[in-house]
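Q: What structure does this chain adopt?
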Amino acid sequence: MIDLADVSSVDLVKRQWDTGALNQVWAGDITDLRTWEEWVYLATVIDAHSRRVIGWDNSMAESFFATLKTDS
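A:
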Protein backbone atom coordinates (compact mmCIF):
# COMPACT_ATOMS: atom_id res chain seq x y z
CA MET A 1 0.00 0.00 0.00
CA ILE A 2 1.29 3.48 -0.85
CA ASP A 3 1.53 6.00 1.98
CA LEU A 4 0.16 9.24 0.51
CA ALA A 5 2.29 11.27 2.91
CA ASP A 6 5.38 9.94 1.09
CA VAL A 7 4.11 10.83 -2.39
CA SER A 8 5.06 14.14 -3.94
CA SER A 9 3.97 15.38 -7.31
CA VAL A 10 5.68 17.90 -9.54
CA ASP A 11 3.62 20.33 -11.61
CA LEU A 12 5.47 19.77 -14.89
CA VAL A 13 3.26 22.18 -16.87
CA LYS A 14 3.17 24.89 -14.17
CA ARG A 15 -0.63 25.19 -14.50
CA GLN A 16 -0.35 26.05 -18.22
CA TRP A 17 -2.81 23.39 -19.33
CA ASP A 18 -3.44 24.66 -22.88
CA THR A 19 -0.15 25.06 -24.74
CA GLY A 20 -1.89 25.88 -28.02
CA ALA A 21 -1.03 22.53 -29.62
CA LEU A 22 -2.44 19.03 -29.62
CA ASN A 23 -0.77 16.18 -27.71
CA GLN A 24 1.34 18.41 -25.48
CA VAL A 25 -0.59 18.04 -22.20
CA TRP A 26 -2.84 15.16 -21.29
CA ALA A 27 -4.93 14.84 -18.15
CA GLY A 28 -6.30 11.63 -16.73
CA ASP A 29 -8.79 10.54 -14.13
CA ILE A 30 -10.32 7.40 -12.69
CA THR A 31 -13.83 7.47 -11.30
CA ASP A 32 -16.10 4.84 -9.83
CA LEU A 33 -19.71 4.42 -10.89
CA ARG A 34 -22.22 2.37 -8.97
CA THR A 35 -24.52 0.14 -11.00
CA TRP A 36 -27.35 -2.08 -9.81
CA GLU A 37 -24.98 -5.04 -9.60
CA GLU A 38 -21.54 -3.69 -8.65
CA TRP A 39 -19.05 -0.85 -8.94
CA VAL A 40 -17.63 -0.04 -12.37
CA TYR A 41 -14.45 1.99 -12.81
CA LEU A 42 -13.95 4.42 -15.70
CA ALA A 43 -10.50 5.72 -16.62
CA THR A 44 -10.18 8.58 -19.14
CA VAL A 45 -7.36 10.54 -20.77
CA ILE A 46 -8.16 14.00 -22.18
CA ASP A 47 -6.05 16.25 -24.43
CA ALA A 48 -5.84 19.62 -22.66
CA HIS A 49 -5.85 21.68 -25.89
CA SER A 50 -8.78 20.09 -27.74
CA ARG A 51 -10.52 18.94 -24.54
CA ARG A 52 -11.42 15.72 -26.29
CA VAL A 53 -11.24 12.28 -24.75
CA ILE A 54 -8.33 10.54 -26.45
CA GLY A 55 -8.48 7.31 -24.50
CA TRP A 56 -10.71 5.50 -22.05
CA ASP A 57 -11.29 2.14 -20.48
CA ASN A 58 -13.82 0.73 -18.09
CA SER A 59 -13.89 -2.37 -15.99
CA MET A 60 -15.62 -4.15 -13.18
CA ALA A 61 -13.98 -3.76 -9.79
CA GLU A 62 -12.09 -7.04 -9.53
CA SER A 63 -10.59 -7.07 -13.02
CA PHE A 64 -9.75 -3.33 -12.93
CA PHE A 65 -7.60 -3.62 -9.83
CA ALA A 66 -5.99 -6.81 -11.10
CA THR A 67 -4.97 -4.95 -14.27
CA LEU A 68 -3.60 -2.00 -12.30
CA LYS A 69 -1.48 -4.29 -10.15
CA THR A 70 0.01 -6.26 -13.04
CA ASP A 71 0.67 -3.23 -15.28
CA SER A 72 2.38 -1.09 -12.64
